[in-house]
Structure formats: structure tokens, C-alpha cells
Amino acid sequence: MNLLDIRSHLQPAAMTLAATLMACMPAWAVDPFTVRDIRVEGLQRIESGTVFASMPLRVGDQYSDEKGAAAIRALFALGLFKDVRLETQGDILVVVVEERPSVAVVEFIGLKEFDKDVLIKALREVGLAEGRPYDKALADKAEQELKRQYISRSLYGAEVVSTATPVDRNRVNLSFTITEGGPAKIKQIQIVGNKAFTESDLRDQFNLDTGGWMSWYTKSDRYARTKLNADLEALRSYYLSRGFLEFRIDSTQVAISPDKQEMAITINVFEGERFVVSGVKLEGNYLNKDDEFRALVKIGLGQPYNAETVAETTKAFTDYFGTFGFAFARVEVKPEIDRASNRVQFVLQAEPSRRAYVRRILVSGNNRTRDEVIRREFRQFESAWYDGDKIRLSRDRVDRLGFFTSVNVETVEIPGAPDQVDLAFTVTEKPTGSISLGAGFSSAEKVTLSFGIRQENAFGSGNYLAVEVNTSKYNRNLVLSTTDPYFTQNGISRTFDVFSRTTRPYLTTDLSSYSLVNTGAGIRFGVPVTERDTVFLGVTAEQTTVNKGTAGNLPYEYDQYGQVFGFRSTALPFTLGWARDGRDSALVPSKGQFQRVNADLSLAGDVRYVRTNYQHQYYYPLSKKYTLALNADLGWGQGLNGQPYPLFKNFYVGGLGSVRGFQQSTLGPASQTAGIYLGGSKKIVLNAEFMVPFPGAGNDRTLRLFGFTDVGSAFGDSEKVSMSALRASAGIGLSWISPMGPLRFSYATPIRQQTGDKIQKLQFQIGTSF
Q1: 567 assigned to some structural domain
Q2: How far apart are CA 102 and CA 79, in angstroms?
Q3: Which of 172, 261, 413, 689 has the least C-beta neighbours within 10 A?
Q4: Within this chain, do residues 404 and 534 fall inside the same structural domain, yes or no?
Q5: Whole-model pTM?
Q6: Do 631 and 743 fall within a single domain?
Q7: How much is the average pLDDT of 391-411?
Q8: Sequence-ordered list of residues with C-beta below 8 angstroms from that of 526, at least 6 positions apart, any chain
Q9: What span, in angstroms and rounded, lies between the C-alpha atoms of 592 and 621?
Q10: What residues are paired with 406 via a beta bridge?
């Protein structure tokens, strides 16, 4: 037997050198021979087919030292073996391997800052995971990756030590012992070179700070390079939007204390002079539409230079070129600086390039949502002129579906086709379903349960599906609702509602007393008339039952209702509504308006009435941090054909969502015999809020404080609306977009009230704005 002592206990990085040395040593050389058979020895978990598939030698091939070295290199390259050697037995080639151990279990000791799954994923990305081969170099790499994860959270003192414990079947249990330590806190942020603005004004632009009483929530005193870069961009924008054309950040130093617990940041800036815009000139090809382009200029003459208005102007120009199909238009801004007078003139040089068609529209990232759900929102079509307005509108419509955390559009040039482009829509899906299960306890109701399931994108179809159940003794609800947003190809939506609601009026403590049961079903269509406006049409069939109960204490007003309409009455109200939403966000709006009008008209059944409601919200940004919000909510109802207005359609005022500081639904007419509140056929609610960031929360818009003033009341069917009867309150509140939904707390003091009003200064609500 000839033995090729081609053996390596080196790491794979040294494999090539070992094989080369082997080929150069004549004492190890083997005369060439024809391979009659190949055997593999030493395999435990790896299939022999893996070895055969990787080797450049096959049965029947002529063996040589060069081919042997190539075979060893190929097997080492798999990363599965720590030792490989070749032996010959006559004309039989024997491949002897020693497998690297595999990772059986990965454990973490001392882990607090991270969820285990986060670190498991990070280790998998560097090649270490359960079931994969293990070596010391990979463990060292894993330690460095874990340290990097901790550094990203300002835990610079974190120590990581790996321990590999051999177990059966050539496996190892790998454990990482972690000493996390405390996070490095920012103790100082210093800006050097500023003259035009105070250091405190400049630091107000940062999300990073030296800590405050809310730092436990915002973690704003934890250093991160990405956060610092974002703050430096905010600082640069602050100067460039106030005339400092030549502002620059010369250097940034970040120093950490020896114990890695404190950090100091020093930023050196050069402000330069403040420049005023003296003029704007258009040069180049503007498609003979110079006046139209000039109307798009946002740069203010005689005003300090503002980089934001310059960027807005160039974007407006390229967007306008896009509406004519010029997808590759270029607009270059050339400043002409007069340093003697500190004035600057801008020359806008335009080149529309070539007009383009959209060949194809590609959609990616929608692993769950069907393609048609996205494509039916497009207003730019394939094989049509490139239209920038329609592309932006398409992107906004897809974004407004609410199914995605991000929607991006890219224009892709087609090689060899200068007049064609592809559009690539990339979406990132988010969870669109929620299941809620709640329980409550009170002395009056004892235990109450609530359950809800909502899916805004059921089975990826874009349809809405919801089920709500509430077992409260005062308000028992069962509601089923489903919406098909594209019932027709033109975008007309269809909604089905089935409901059963049992209500015992407020302040009724005897559960054997009367109740109102409202059951029914309805259908509603939404017809889009513009991109922001929708008209709603629908009809509902409902039945209302007044249960007298066993206590015999039915209020006079409900007894009179039963005498007129019957204690079991039917209604068939038709719905007509309109809504326009121009807010920048539905959850945390800071600018824009929202309006809606809804009217119910019942002309069939036992009950005849008309009921209307109008709401108008207006958000005005006073600055980046401060927002003024105004809300008006008006309601009016009237009985028809000589009938009184039905009590169960009354409006209720009082509490969160209307006039804070008063108990929920207690403003307006009350029963003179039972001491309950009946609501009214008319209502007026006016609200004003001044919203500011929560102290210590930086610019986080999901957590805000607000001061407010509320005015409003409800009025009975026979009452006239009187300004003197309106109640008013003022107070402060807190809003938070929590994982459970929008939360609002308020503390209000009535500033205008009447004798007998029920006061409730501290109130809490989930789910609405005003």
C-alpha cells in the first residue's frame, strides 16, 4: 500500500498552501494510475454523495498529484471537514476525512437587553446556527457580532465569552456567557463655532440629548452612530434653511470614558455668512412652458437662502417634466454668489432629455397580499406615457391601503431602449390583523369580557373583516362587519353589517329594570368621486325593542315612546354620506383637514325620522413640534310625518370624545322620573387642542401632551339651541399611540356648568382622537 501523506490539521485558509507543498515534494509523489474505485472513510453525519459531488476525480479518471491536490482543496472548501487525506490501495483511491463538529445547542447566559431570537438571527447571518459546522474561528466571529449588537444599544462595556462543550455524535453545545454592564450615557454635547444661534437652540434640533426624566422611555441619552448622523443632518438643515449657504460641519469627536459608561460629543461647525436671494434665472429647455415652470419656483426673492425651498423647486420642476413623459429630466441648480453684498442668485439649468413610455410595472415584497390588490390602485398603466403625477398618485393610493410599512417606486432604465422604462414598486408588508381579548371588573357589572378580531387584509384579498363581542351587563354588543373595497372594478366598495346591541341607560343600577335592544343588518356602498372624496350610500333594516323589565320602573319618556311607536318597532333608514381626508396621518396628524357628513333618512317602517351629523377637523402646524387642532361636531335629528324624534337615535354629549370634565353622556335632557340621561336630538361640540411633545420625548409624535378647551351640550326635541346652555371645560391631557391602540388621558376642570351636572375630572379613553 502506498500512502500519500497528504494531511492537514490546518484551518481551511491554509489548505491551498498545504496542497501546493504536497505537489512539490517528490518523496510524496505517486505514479499516475487509472482510478478503479473511490471509497470515503470517516463520515458521520455528512452524506458520501456530498464528497463525490465536490471532488474533481471520478472512477475511470487518470489520477495525478495535481488532481489529488485539487480534490483536497475542493473538500476543504466545503467547510465541513477539519482534516482531509488521500490514500491509495492499488488502483483504489481512499478519501479519509475528519468532520468538523456541528453545533447542537446555542445558549445565552446573562441575557437581559435582547430577546434571544434577535441574537439567534444575528448569529445565523455570520454562519453560526444549530446544526451547522463549528470551529473556533467561527465562535470568535460570533463573539464579535454579539458585541456589535450590544454596541448598537450603547452597551460598550458588554463582555462575551463563548464555551464549546463536546457532546455525543461529534457535536458541541455552544454557550455565550454575557456580562452586559450598563449603557454608556451621553453626558455632554458641545457645539463649537456657532455664533448666529445659541447652543441650546441647536441642541433642540437633536434627538440625542444628555438625558431627562423620560430617558427611560425615549433612550435619547444612548449614543448610536446612526442617530448622531441623523442629528447632524438636522443641524445642517437648520442652518441651510436660514441663509447659511456655506455652512459645514468640520469634524465630530466622540469620546468615551475609561469605564465605558459615559460619552462626550463635540461638534465643530463653520457657519459662514448669511446670504439673501437676489434672483432666480431659468436656463435650458423648458418645453416652451417657461411661465408655467416659473410659477413652480418656491425660492423667495429678498429672503434668506433656504435649501429646503431650493430642493422643493427642483423637485417640482422634475415632477412637472414627468407629467409630460420626460422620466429622465435633469434640473441643476447653480448659485452665483456675490460675497461683497452677501447675496446669491440661482440659475436653474434644465435638460428634459428624452420622453419615455412605461414598458412594465413590477411589484415585489408582497408575500401575502395579492398582486391585483396593489395593481388596482395604479393610475399609471403599462404601455402608456410616463406620467409623474400618476406615478405619485399610484404610490400614495397603495400606501393608503394601510397594508404596508413602506411603499417605494423606482424608475429602471431598459438597456437598448432609450425611450422605455420599467417601474419597480417595492412594498414592505406589515401585520394587518389583530385579536383582542379583554376583561374588566366593577362593583356594578362584576366581570365583563370583550373579544374582537379584525383583519384589514383578509387572506391577502384587501377585504376588511371584523367581529366584536362585549358581555358588559350595561352594553352587550355583537357586531359582524365586512368590506370589499373593490366590489366593482371602478373602486366602489361594499360593506355588510350585522349587529345586536343591548343597552341599559347610564345610572341604572337595577339590572332587572328596562333595556333597549337594537338588532339589524345593513349594506353600504362607497363611491369614490375624486382621489380624496368618497360618497357613501346605504340602507339598514333594524328593530328596536324596549324591554320593560320586572322592576316596573320604565321611565316616562320611554313609556311614551312605546305608546307612539310600539314597544317593538322597525325602521328602514337610508344612508347618504360624504368624507374627505386630507390629513398627513390618521393616527398622529399634524397638518391637514378631515371632513365628513352623514345623513340617515327613515321613510319606511314604524319609525320615520331624519338624522344628520357633520364633523370637521383642522390641524395647523405652528412649528415642527407644536400643532393646533380644532374640531367641530354638530348633530341634528327630526321626526317626520308628525312623529316625534325616536329616543334611541339621540346624540349624547359629555366625557372624552366630546366635552371632557363631565361624566360620559350626561350633558343634555334627563328623565324627570327615573334620573337617567336621555341625550338629545341636537348637539354642538367644539374642541381646541394645543399639542406639544412630551417633555423628554424629543420629537416623538406618538407621545404628546396637549392643553384643551371644550364647549358643547345636547338639546331635546322641543328645546331650542341656546348658547347659554352650553357647558365648557379646560384642562390638560396625554395622548400615546401604544401597542394597544391610541390612548388618551385627560384632566379637565369645568369652567361653565349648571346645577346638577355630573363632574368627572380625570378620564381615560382608547381608540379615538377627539
Answers
A1: no
A2: 11
A3: 413
A4: no
A5: 0.57
A6: yes
A7: 83
A8: 485, 492, 493, 494, 495, 534, 535, 536
A9: 9
A10: 428
Question: How many CB atoms sit inside 10 A of residue 220's CB?
Answer: 21
Q: How many residues does the chain have?
A: 770
Say how many domains are in the chain. Answer: 7
Q: Is the pLDDT of residue 746 over 70?
A: yes
Query: What whole-number distance in Å separates Cα of residue 135 and Cα of residue 122?
Result: 18
> Helix, strand, or coil here: 411?
strand
For 512-554, what is each residue's pLDDT tens digit? Answer: 567 788 899 999 999 988 878 899 999 999 998 888 766 556 7
At 472, the amino acid letter reads S
Alpha carbon of 751 to those of 300, 662, 731: distances in Å?
45, 11, 10
Task: Name the nearest CA neighbour of 366 among 416, 426, 411, 325.
Answer: 426
Same-domain check for residues 620 and 766: yes
Of the listed ranges 440-454, 551-565, 576-590, 724-738, the least confidently predicted one is 440-454
| Secondary structure (3-state) at 478 | strand
Percent of residues in the chain assigned helix, strand, coil, to nearest 5: 20, 45, 35
| Structural contact between residues 319 and 253, judged by C-beta atoms closer than 8 angstroms | no
CA atoms within 13 A on the CB side of 248: 3
Same domain for 170 and 247: no
Residues 6+ apart with CB under 8 A from 295: none
Note the pLDDT tens digit of each residue in 600-642. 999 988 899 999 999 999 999 887 778 999 999 999 999 998 8
Domain that holds residue 196: 185-270
Count CB atoms within 10 A of the CB of residue 18.
Answer: 19
* DSSP three-state, residue 156: coil
* Pair (455, 542) in one structural domain: yes
Q: Are residues 175 and 288 in the same domain?
A: no
What was the pLDDT predicted at 306?
A: 93
Res. 441 pLDDT band, cuts 50 70 90 = very low
CB 333 within 8 A of CB 311: no
Grid coordinates standing for 274? 448669511
Q: How far is CA 553 from CA 204, 526, 545, 680, in A?
A: 62, 43, 16, 21
